[in-house]
Amino acid sequence: MNKTELGKQTYENLCKAFELIGFKFERNDEKLSVACVCSGDDLRINIFMRVDGEAHCVSLFSAMPYTISKDKISEAALAVCSVNSKIKFGKFDVDPQSGAIDYNFCNYYDNAAAPSPQLFKFLLMVALHTVDKYNDKFLNLNRGVLSVEDFLTAGDNNIKS
């Protein structure tokens, strides 16, 4: 299979994963991308995934539905570093200029075969769990409800996801 065919098959398998989960999603067949809004326990979760057939990569991007205020950027950066050292898959980022905070990952695959819909379903569920676990904690840190010290020592933060 050439890169273009493999990329299209990978994209179809990604879409099948969303169907297996039962999520409503928007396909962009030209850009090989999928967009979805899910309901988390506390906040909505925006998901954008894209297949790059040339790079043999599937990426996920999930922007939090808020920005970090300028006076909380340093605290948020410490919290993001702490969380990133604990989680097994993906990473959070905070932009010090805009205050935007997001979760993302890139999963590479080989030339032989497209990743299965079941693999994508698993990766998507891990990503959703991780975002849902931390999005409200970052928001509470931003609102001043949770101090950075409490965030860093909270038992929930020490559970590996």
Topology, please?
Layout: H1 3-21, E1 26-28, E2 33-39, E3 44-52, E4 57-67, H2 73-86, E5 91-94, E6 100-108, H3 117-143, H4 148-153
Antiparallel strand pairs: 1-2, 2-3, 3-4, 4-6, 5-6
What does this protein look like?
The protein is of the alpha+beta class. It has a single domain, classed as Yope Regulator, Chain: A, CATH 3.30.1460.70. The chain has 4 helices and 6 strands; from the N terminus they run H-E-E-E-E-H-E-E-H-H. It has helices spanning 3-21, 73-86, 117-143, 148-153; strands at residues 26-28, 33-39, 44-52, 57-67, 91-94, 100-108. A 6-stranded antiparallel sheet has the order 1-2-3-4-6-5. A hairpin with a 4-residue loop joins strand 2 (33-39) and strand 3. Helix 1 (3-21) packs across helix 3 and helix 2 runs antiparallel to helix 3 (117-143). It is elongated, with a radius of gyration of 17 Å.
Structural class by helix and strand composition:
alpha+beta
Ranges where pLDDT stays below 50 over 5 or more residues in a row are 157-161
Mean pLDDT: 92
Top-tier CATH class: Alpha Beta
**In the CATH scheme, what's the topology name?**
Yope Regulator, Chain: A
Number of strands: 6
Report, as a whole number of angstroms, the end-to-end distance.
Answer: 35 Å
Q: Which percent range fits the helix content?
A: 40-55%
